[in-house]
UniProtKB/TrEMBL annotation:
Annotated stretches, region: Disordered: 52-78, 308-352
Protein name, as recorded: Uncharacterized protein
Domain of life: Bacteria
Comp. bias regions, Basic residues: 335-352
Species per Swiss-Prot/TrEMBL record: Capillimicrobium parvum
Signal sequence segment: 1-36
InterPro entries, A to Z: 6-blade_b-propeller_TolB-like
Keyword list, A-Z: Signal
Length: 352
């Protein structure tokens, strides 16, 4: 991992990073932040939960299949989970019981064409009242190039209300507060911020070139701001140049007008499989997906400190939340009932 303020150390730091990753992967351990936080994630087509150190993973949903998988899970502060499932957005509690389900209405993309298909991204607000979702389209006409386009919408978490959105062209939405959402629309629109319900157009927080200069700029997206507004983590680059990078936020991004561009702190080595970063509430810990599973990095301010470690092999799409990773009482009751039935069946066989 490198300190972006000291590029002369890049080669040495990259060597250190690779050595650290190999050692930690072998050890299979990472020091987690001291809290009862949890992450939800996808494994075997379903939603799971675990501690932020990867401890005590347990399955939440059980009806996901290869043909109808769950994807893009996120959780509110109470632990309710929203995820894409087919053409719908499902909300479930920690036992997997469905709280609500709705199919989001189509949106208009930047070319004026209608989006369609399954939600490509889902993000639940911290208080659980709203859900941001991204729909995509493949469109072209005589005036625009053919290509995939993403549009973000915001609805009540149960789908009962859709908030008017002034052309939220882009995807990977995440919540900065309960009423301010961040999404990404590509070059010149890389970090769009919109106050939900406001008729004002979204403002662009910053571009990669604002931090690294025009000659060194690249793609930037899939970002998330820590709950306290102090840190920001995102995917930088594309294909073989893809990295996870995190920043110190300057000023306030939680309210008011556009703040200054954040200051970069550190970034990982390059890997095309890096995606879906998430960050905890005080900005001290982050996790992301790689080809081997979910990795986590504690102490984000220490570039050469504890290195990232693989915490959940085979898992994908992590999303942090402050809810504890405890199996709900309903799950425990079901487990106890199954054990009781098995004991009764075994007792019956012995008597026979």
């Amino acid at each position: 991992m490198r300190d972006v303020a000291a590029p002369r150390m890049l080669a040495a730091m990259r060597t250190h990073l690779l050595a650290g990753l190999a050692a930690l992967a072998a050890a299979g351990a990472v020091t987690a932040p001291a809290s009862a936080d949890s992450i939800v994630f996808i494994k075997d087509h379903n939603v799971w939960s675990a501690g932020v150190d990867g401890s005590s993973p347990h399955q939440i949903t059980r009806d996901g299949t290869a043909d109808a998988p769950y994807s893009s899970p996120s959780q509110d502060d109470r632990g309710t989970v929203a995820a894409a499932h087919g053409y719908a957005i499902d909300r479930v509690d920690r036992s997997g019981r469905r709280v609500s389900r709705f199919v989001p209405q189509n949106l208009k993309d930047s070319s004026g064409h209608s989006t369609a298909g399954a939600p490509a991204w889902v993000s639940l607000s911290p208080d659980g009242s709203k859900v941001a979702f991204t729909l995509t389209s493949l469109s072209c006409d005589l005036t625009i190039d053919c290509g995939a386009r993403a549009t973000t919408g915001v609805a009540a978490a149960d789908g009962s209300r859709v908030y008017d959105t002034p052309g939220l062209y882009g995807g990977w939405a995440s919540w900065i507060t309960n009423d301010r959402v961040l999404f990404h629309g590509g070059f010149l629109y890389q970090n769009q911020v919109w106050d939900v319900g406001s008729p004002a157009e979204p403002f662009d927080w910053f571009e990669d070139q604002d931090v690294y200069g025009h000659g060194s700029s690249t793609d930037l997206g899939d970002g998330e701001v820590s709950r306290n507004g102090a840190r920001y983590v995102a995917v930088r680059g594309y294909d073989a140049t893809t990295q996870i990078v995190w920043y110190r936020v300057e000023g306030s991004i939680q309210s008011g007008p556009k703040p200054p561009a954040p200051q970069p702190l550190c970034m990982t080595g390059q890997d095309p499989s890096l995606r879906d970063p998430t960050i905890n509430g005080d900005g001290t810990w982050a996790a992301w997906e790689e080809s081997t599973g979910i990795w986590a990095k504690p102490n984000l301010d220490a570039c050469d400190g504890p290195q990232p470690a693989l915490i959940l092999p085979g898992a994908a799409e992590p999303s942090w939340g402050p809810a504890a990773n405890t199996a709900p009482k309903q799950v425990e009751k079901k487990k106890a009932a199954r054990k009781k039935r098995k004991r009764g069946q075994a007792h019956g066989k012995r008597r026979a």
